[in-house]
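Do me a favour: review this protein, sequence plus structure tokens, and tell me how the chain folds. Record follows.
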Amino acid sequence: MEFVRLSLVFLHLLGMGALVGAFLLQQRDRAVVNKGWLHGAGLQLLTGIALMGLAPLTDADYNHMKLGIKLLVVVAIAGLAFAFTAKKTAPTWLNPTLGGLLVLNIGLAVFWT
């Protein structure tokens, strides 16, 4: 069971890396929202929910308030990315907003114990 949990943590961190990569790629071309936002947010969402589902089996004690807020942040990232990937141009406020939400999510993960 520990291997499954560690594999999910690994994939969860890869999702975070995909979001950081999407943000850096977005700096080059701010007019179009790249699909890396969707892939990274989707991977983070799925693996985070799977890790929460495994919590009773691994006797892990998670802070549910923290995880609920992190869930809202990643859903906001996915929602904004989904809303603007199909459009030809993205508004100027979108990239700083997505970047701020990304930093907020990473900060919550690291500093809120």
Q: What stands out?
A: The chain has one domain: 2-111. The chain has a mean pLDDT of 92.
